[in-house]
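Quick one: examine the sequence and fold tokens given here and explain what the tokens say about the fold. Here goes:
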Amino acid sequence: MIYFAHRGASAQAPANSKEAFALARKLGATYYELDVHLTQDDRLVVRHDYVLDNTARTIKEYTLPQLQAYCAENQILCPPLLEEILPIVEPELTCLNVELKNDDNVYPCIEEKLLNLLKTKAPHLLPKILFSAFDFPTLCRLRALAPQVQIGLLTRQFDPAQARELNAFSVHMNQTRITPQIVQACHAENRRVFIYTVNTKQDEQRLKEMGADGIFTDRLDLFIK
């Protein structure tokens, strides 16, 4: 069973923070997951939610300096840059799942900008990156730009035709939606199945018996000795 540190060691440190990834590495992680957004000035930042706080202001409304100033003024943890996280997870890295937060193409060209950053800052890590997104057109654009990269079909409703169109390496689903039949269908086409978000040994065992290849967990400390 593979254990992805979901947004780092996010049960013990702020999710998607430098501290969370440093702690996950200390706990023994070699598989990680994070989420990326694009600022107004095209900087890739690591955060799950589109909004910053209860004002409903979104990341895309700010340049990076504006975002940093707003977070400092309001005592909010500022989302780190992706390029700040890469050196933290690089030692002994097996796989980094980068989820593009791009519903309805809210960040036009994020696929190209993400690929360019990785090719510029960490080309040696590209074979270890697994790209995913809930937005299927985002994954299609990514595949067209980079036929060689690994893509994970992140979905709420499994469609084998989508997995084939993407030549997906893996399928990612919520533990409440996955079924033994979906696992079997994926394995029949040599795709791995990764399940989120699993934070108990009981759920891990159930999914292991179902045949899942890995889980995304906030509680890495429960699973890695």
